[in-house]
Amino acid sequence: MFNKKYNDRKISEVLGEYIQKNKRIQIHHELKLIQDAWKSEMGEMINGYTSRFFIKHGKLEITLTSAPLRAELSMSKPKLIKLLNEKIGTVVVKEIVLR
User: Fold this and answer.
1) pTM summary value
2) CA distance 90 to 93
3) Domain limits, the chain
4) What is the DSSP letter of 15?
5) Which of 2, 29, 43, 58 could make a disulfide contact with 94, Cβ separation 3.0–4.6 Å?
């Protein structure tokens, strides 16, 4: 009835495998990780000016409601990419577009 192979595994391993097999779930999972990393690394003030996240093929689009903040962060894109990927623990973000 039960497969011994799956009974000895941790739930995190099973969920991780499921997420990797289902591309749509993987994209939403990665986006959630990015949003959490953004919030923790950038703080509440900058997060308050952030209105939208979207990722596709490694290109992260972030919509900011403050033009001066957008200009300031535009100069730090490589640093932001490195910071987010380090926080997530894998290379997900390859490019950032600030809108």
Assistant:
1) 0.80
2) 9
3) 30-98
4) H
5) 58
Chain-centre distance of CA 84, in angstroms?
A: 7
Residue bearing tokens 């923790």: 40
Name the token pair of 50: 């952030």
User: Cα dist. 52→10, 34, 47, 55, 70 in Å?
Assistant: 34, 12, 10, 10, 13
CA 38 – CA 49 distance, rounded (Å): 12
What's the rounded Cα separation, in Å, for the pair 55 and 58? 6
Per residue in 32-86, pLDDT (tens digit) is 999 999 999 999 999 999 999 999 999 999 999 999 999 999 999 999 999 999 9
Give strand pairing partners of 50.
64
Contact 81, 41 (CB under 8 A): no
The per-residue pLDDT for range 16-36, each reduced to its tens digit, is 888 888 988 988 989 999 999
Backbone angles phi, psi at 41, to 5 degrees: -85, -35
